[in-house]
């Protein structure tokens, strides 16, 4: 027996590039309400920084035209959504408004706004975080988080939510489009906020699956940290099971890095001058590490006198690390690999909607052509409404924990169980 339409999850998205905010709101509302025959339970709106002077007008305009009980959103340096021909478009540096509506039968939808000063400290028990959110861990919620980059203490929030809701998927990004404090916009239930984090917890008849494309490829071989202090790698040794073509050189971290760079092709040596990163393995026990098994972090600098290297994360003895490179080709290949793997392993026919949180450093500036990540997504997962924005930092899981990333595209794909 076929389920009635109203009992099935439905997502729709519309994108407008009209230069007038009234015109853009009118277009997206008209299109999404026409496309969604059932009652909307959740709305997500993303507005480009080209409308920065009009953020205060967005919620009143939507409230006049929409009847959605829970609405969240934020500003971005660019927005992502669906054109009338149902092709995805990434609008960068120009007026853009993307509106997602979702009919979510059997799903509890709980929106929240959190000021940094109201967050528990990291020594607090899980109950303090549960009280802050107002959703029990037994409900197994999935989270969408949108945060101000200047005032949210988002790393502490992510760590606290992982502690209180282990195994819960958390995706999202930092609002973008302004370099000044108070210049971004966060929207929650028809109100505009200028600081903190807004989000929604979705529990019940919903599954959110993720693709986190960090856009890097490993070079050389894995090493094990033998001595680390805060974010400084002071000692490391080659793993006994060296990768194909790897050379198990020993020495200080800086000497190891210099030897590795000398072993690269001329093209990769040039790339290493400005696009060299460190991957920290998330699984301490996995024998053969692959692309996607690493949390990518910036290589911040070197300390020649100690032969040490500094990375953008805390390190400790016993961790496995591997150097990585990033460029447009690598970024494209990484996303394609992850999409192909997802297509083979997941029930893609059950997917109903997807959110895309992409770094401001990707898009046309990285690839030299527009709409690259969104069109690649639809090549593997067609007919899924896609919406999102370009972020100042992307939130997504790697190896069972949630992190704030850079240069990454995070996809949250929603379906019924």
UniProtKB/TrEMBL annotation:
It is found in: Cell membrane. Residues 253-398 form the FIST C-domain domain. Its main location: membrane. It comes from Microseira wollei NIES-4236. Keywords: Cell membrane, Coiled coil, Membrane, Transmembrane, Transmembrane helix. GO terms for cellular component: plasma membrane. The keyword Nuclease does not apply. PANTHER family: F-BOX ONLY PROTEIN 22 (PTHR14939:SF5). Pfam families: FIST, FIST_C. It is a multi-pass membrane protein. SMART domains: FIST, FIST_C. InterPro entries: FIST_C (IPR019494), FIST_domain_N (IPR013702), UCP018953 (IPR016741). Residues 39-240 form the FIST domain. The keyword ATP-binding does not apply. This is FIST C-domain domain-containing protein. Residues 325-352 form a coiled coil.
């Amino acid at each position: 027996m076929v389920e009635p339409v109203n009992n099935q999850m439905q997502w729709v998205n519309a994108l407008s590039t009209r230069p007038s905010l009234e015109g853009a709101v009118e277009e997206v509302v008209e299109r999404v309400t026409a496309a969604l025959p059932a009652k909307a339970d959740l709305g997500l709106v993303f507005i480009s920084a080209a409308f920065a002077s009009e953020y205060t007008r967005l919620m009143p305009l939507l409230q006049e035209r929409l009847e959605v009980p829970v609405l969240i959103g934020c500003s971005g340096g660019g927005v992502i959504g669906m054109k009338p021909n149902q092709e995805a478009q990434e609008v960068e540096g120009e007026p853009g408004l993307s509106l997602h509506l979702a009919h979510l039968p059997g799903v509890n939808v709980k929106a929240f706004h959190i000021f940094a000063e109201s967050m528990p400290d990291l020594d607090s028990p899980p109950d303090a975080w549960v009280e802050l959110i107002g959703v029990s861990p037994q409900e197994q919620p999935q989270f969408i988080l949108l945060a101000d980059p200047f005032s949210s203490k988002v790393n502490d929030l992510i760590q606290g939510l992982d502690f209180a809701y282990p195994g819960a998927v958390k995706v999202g990004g930092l609002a973008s489009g302004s370099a000044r404090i108070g210049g971004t916009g966060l929207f929650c239930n028809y109100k505009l906020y200028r600081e903190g984090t807004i989000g929604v917890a979705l529990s019940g008849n919903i599954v959110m699956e993720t693709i986190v494309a960090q856009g890097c490829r490993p070079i050389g071989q894995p090493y094990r940290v033998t001595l680390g202090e805060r974010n400084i790698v002071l000692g490391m040794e080659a793993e006994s099971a060296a990768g194909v073509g790897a050379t198990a050189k020993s020495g200080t971290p800086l000497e190891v890095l210099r030897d590795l760079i000398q072993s690269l092709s001329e093209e990769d040596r040039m790339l290493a001058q400005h696009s060299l990163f460190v991957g920290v393995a998330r699984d301490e026990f996995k024998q053969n590490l692959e692309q996607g098994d690493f949390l990518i972090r910036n290589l911040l600098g070197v300390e020649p006198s100690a032969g040490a290297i500094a990375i953008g994360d805390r390190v400790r003895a016993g961790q496995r690390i591997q150097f990585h490179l990033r460029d447009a080709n690598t970024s494209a290949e990484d996303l394609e690999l992850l999409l192909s793997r997802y297509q083979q392993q997941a029930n893609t026919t059950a997917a109903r909607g997807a959110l895309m949180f992409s770094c401001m450093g990707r898009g046309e500036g990285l690839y030299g052509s527009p709409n690259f990540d969104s069109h690649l997504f639809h090549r593997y997962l067609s007919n899924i409404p896609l919406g999102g924005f370009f972020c100042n930092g992307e939130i997504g899981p790697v190896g069972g924990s949630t992190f704030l990333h850079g240069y990454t595209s995070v996809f949250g794909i929603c379906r019924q169980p």
